[in-house]
Every structure is written in structure tokens, then in C-alpha cells.
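Q: What residues go here?
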């Protein structure tokens, strides 16, 4: 079983968000050499998740957070999309961007 691969990013709330999320997913899954059937199913699911996140009521300046995780050499794909929230972590105004599961980053 290989190391999990993961990417997290945020998208502005717009009609182009779902196509952009699919493009990122396609590119990453290609880099990770994930099979075509998994990639196609992933694109469909991620598109629905992002669309649902866009339909949920939220202030216009809130972004949509997306998380893509691939495990077991492409046999297991985890996709998440939802409101990206800034959480205060204490200190003199310190904050970090969160997407439900952790800080926004790319690995």
C-alpha cells in the first residue's frame, strides 16, 4: 500500500468552480497514474460536491474548499468539498485557513 497523496485548494464561488475543480482532479490523478474508470467517476462526484457547496447559502466572499486524497495506488479516492472557513487559533490575531479536515496546502 503506497503513501496517501493529497491536495487541498480553495475556489471562488462562481459558475467556473466545478470545471476548475475537475481540471485539478484530472491533472492530479494523471500525475498519480490513477486508472481512467476511477478518474471519470471522481470527476462526476467532485462536480456534484462542488455544485452542492455552491448552492448552499453562504456569504459571497466565502470560498469553496476542496480536498482530494488518493490511497492504495489509486484504488481508493476520497473527495470533499464545502465551505472554506478561517478559524482563529489564538495569539495576536493569528488565523489559519481550514477546510473541515485541515489546513489548506498541497502535497
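A:
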Amino acid at each position: 500500500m503506497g503513501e496517501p497523496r493529497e491536495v487541498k485548494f480553495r475556489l471562488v464561488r462562481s459558475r467556473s468552480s466545478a470545471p476548475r475543480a475537475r481540471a485539478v482532479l484530472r491533472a492530479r490523478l494523471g500525475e498519480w497514474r490513477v486508472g481512467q474508470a476511477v478518474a471519470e467517476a471522481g470527476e462526476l462526484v467532485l462536480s456534484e460536491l462542488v455544485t452542492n457547496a455552491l448552492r448552499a447559502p453562504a456569504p459571497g466572499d466565502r470560498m469553496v474548499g476542496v480536498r482530494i486524497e488518493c490511497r492504495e495506488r489509486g484504488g481508493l479516492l476520497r473527495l470533499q468539498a464545502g465551505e472554506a472557513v478561517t478559524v482563529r487559533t489564538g495569539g495576536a490575531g493569528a488565523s489559519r485557513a481550514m477546510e473541515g479536515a485541515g489546513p489548506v496546502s498541497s502535497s
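A: Context that may help when evaluating the design: The longest helix spans residues 36-55. Residues 5-98 form a domain with the Heat Shock Protein 90 fold (CATH 3.30.565.10).
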